[in-house]
Design goal:
- The structure holds 2 protein chains of 2 kinds.
- By secondary structure, chain A is of the alpha/beta class.
- Chain A has helices at about 45-55, 85-90, 105-115, 120-135, 135-140, 155-165, 185-195, 210-215, 235-240, 245-250, and strands spanning about 5-15, 20-30, 35-40, 65-70, 75, 90-95, 170-175, 200-205, 220-225, 225-230.
- A 6-stranded mixed sheet of chain A has the order 6-7-8-3-9-10, with helices on both faces. Chain A has a 4-stranded antiparallel sheet with strand order 2-1-4-5, covered by helices on one side.
- In chain A, strand 7 (about 170-175), helix 7 (about 185-195) and strand 8 form a beta-alpha-beta unit.
- The radius of gyration of chain A is 18 Å and the shape is globular.
- Chain B has helices at about 5-40, 45-50, 65-100, 105-120, 120-135, 140-165, 170-175, 180-195, 195-210, 215, 235-245, 250-280.
- In chain B, helix 3 crosses helix 11 (about 235-245), helix 4 crosses helix 6 and helix 11 packs antiparallel against helix 12.
- Chain B has 2 domains: about 5-45; about 50-280, MetI-like fold (Orthogonal Bundle), CATH 1.10.3720.10.
- Classes of the chains: A alpha/beta, B mainly alpha.
- The interface of A and B includes residues 59, 85, 86 and 103 of A.
Chain lengths: ~250, ~290
């Protein structure tokens, strides 16, 4: 069996919003080709941690970031780091699906086009490939040029997945990616994650413990901006080492 | 029925009536205006009026038309709307995609636009005139387009700004997360999402530009000819209406209403046409 190689790690990361410390000395190694779930009560900094990984946090006013986030050994916060190139390596699924204001086809083609892919034939082939990859092709092949906003919420989220995969990421980030979805669409996305983790590092933030149990190989438990405990899912769920983890998993804090 | 419940129902009724009356006032004013100009102006409206320029003694009741003012106004409004968009759209995109949302520059720009919005158009007119004297530009369509364009910038920019502000931040994040630059996010995603609203902003700018009299008085001038070049002076409908209304001759005053009718029709046709375009452009809006 091949040993997972860590492609993404966080070292001594602090994030302050004004005087408020949102993340305190976070150190995490995200294993490759595994699904990592970041869990913890609301406001513990899960989403902030996720947003530091593709530097979307740069767009939030008044945040100060210290520490390192290493992607393939390179600090993404180093001076002169290529932010758009970095983001290309990180697909993102947000809480509510966010189709772009264009057709289904153009949504998937968007990333390829901005990254300079031009030949029409090639784009069309890859759009089909990624729509199939996200299990959406059969449902949309007759209406590729219709507005993406006309899809159901569940379909929209799979479209966003296809769109994210189309730019060729190494890591897939999900910020509670199923929280707006109905149970069937949630299944779709979860099944997809299980399949995709063979090829990508997947990191999701979730407040649904059962989802973390179902999907995660690796779990990071956060509380009040700190990583309390992290490790293989089995160990963390069955034999938590820390009092707070135990309390959260048993449901006595939420 | 309990007393508190009855009071709440009364409140509900009162509020509803208040809103209905307000809506009625707006609608009734529109009808009253249109009726007035139609009733007073219809009989003077003629093909000749729309297609010829004033002949000698037009303002004393002799023959001719207001083609000079129609053409001047349309050129002026089109030119200044294009100019205002060229300035307003980048401002709106800057405020909503480039600048940090709570940054100081954002507040300053919005306040500046709001203040400019309140500056009376006669002030723009006289400011423009001073500027023209200083630079050495004569009264012309060109000068008018610049001054009216500046007059319209605050409306266009602020309307566009509000439109783009309503684009969900997650949509911008989605574009950024795929590695889009700020320009790609602004132009291909945010502006596209806001397209219908941007169209409305254009219409508002055009309406203001074509209807303003005070700012064009010193800058565009007035002439009986259709402008042949952008450096020629041009007549405008609001001033044509003003001159005709001040005439002692009753027929000329009636022509003023006909001119007002023409001005209103231009705006009305453009609004309807614009609405259709807006509707088509909103196809992809999420």
């Amino acid at each position: 069996m091949h040993t997972p190689r860590t492609t993404l790690s966080v070292r001594g990361l602090h994030v302050n919003y004004g005087d408020h410390a949102v993340l305190k000395d976070v150190n995490v190694d995200f294993p490759d080709r595994r699904l990592t779930a970041i869990i913890g009560p609301s406001g513990c900094g899960k989403t902030t941690l996720l947003r530091t990984l593709n530097r979307l946090i740069d767009n939030t006013e008044g945040t100060r970031i210290t520490g390192e986030v290493l992607l393939d050994g390179q600090d993404i916060y180093a001076r002169g780091a290529d932010v758009t190139g970095l983001r290309r390596k990180m697909g993102l699924l947000s809480q509510r699906p966010t189709p772009l204001p264009m057709s289904i086809f153009d949504n998937v083609a968007f990333g390829m086009r901005i990254h300079g892919e031009r030949p029409k034939q090639q784009i069309a082939e890859r759009v089909e490939y990624f729509l199939r990859h996200a299990s959406l092709w059969e449902e949309v092949k007759e209406r590729l040029h219709q507005p993406a906003g006309g899809l159901s919420i569940g379909q929209q989220q799979r479209l966003c997945l296809a769109r994210g995969l189309a730019v060729g990421p190494e890591v897939i980030l999900g910020d509670e990616p199923t929280s707006a979805l109905d149970p069937i669409s949630t299944r779709h996305i979860e099944d997809k994650f299980t399949e995709l983790k063979e090829r990508y590092a997947i990191i999701i933030v979730t407040h649904v413990l059962r989802q973390a149990r179902r999907l995660a190989d690796h779990v990071v438990f956060m509380y009040l901006g700190e990583v309390v405990e992290q490790g293989p899912a089995e160990q963390l769920f069955n034999d938590p080492q820390h009092e707070l983890t135990r309390a959260y998993i048993s449901g006595s804090i939420s | 029925m309990e007393k508190s419940t009855r009071n709440r129902l009364l409140q509900e009724q009162a509020a509803l009536w208040m809103m209905r009356s307000a809506a009625f006032v707006v609608f009734a004013s529109l009808v009253a205006i249109i009726l007035t100009i139609v009733v007073k102006g219809w009989s003077s409206l003629s093909w000749e009026m729309l297609t010829s320029t004033p002949q000698g003694g037009y303002y004393l009741g002799k023959g001719g038309g207001i083609l000079n003012a129609i053409a001047g106004s349309v050129y002026l409004a089109l030119g200044s709307t294009v100019l205002a968009t060229g300035i307003g759209l980048p401002i709106a995109l800057y405020l909503n995609v480039y600048a940090s949302p709570s940054g100081r520059s954002v507040g300053m720009i919005r306040t500046a636009l709001d203040v400019l919005f309140g500056v009376p158009s006669i002030v723009y007119g006289s400011f423009g005139f001073v500027l023209m004297l200083w630079v050495g530009i004569k009264v012309s369509l060109f000068a008018g387009i610049i001054v009216v364009g500046l007059l319209v910038v605050p409306i266009v920019a602020r309307t566009m700004d509000e439109v783009l502000r309503s684009v969900r931040p997650e949509m911008k994040d989605a574009a950024f997360a795929m590695g889009a630059t700020r320009w790609e996010t602004a132009w291909k995603v945010v502006a596209r999402q806001g397209l219908p609203g941007l169209g409305t902003a254009l219409l508002m700018g055009f309406g203001r530009a074509i209807g303003d009299a005070a700012s064009v008085m010193f800058t565009t001038g007035f002439t009986d000819h259709v402008p042949g070049s952008i450096m020629d002076p041009a007549a405008t409908l609001p001033l044509a209406i003003f001159f005709q209304l001040s005439s002692p001759v009753p027929e000329v005053r009636e022509r003023a209403y006909a001119a007002a009718l023409v001005l209103t029709m231009i705006i009305l046709i453009l609004s309807i046409f614009g609405r259709l375009l807006v509707k088509r452009s909103s196809k992809h809006t999420i």
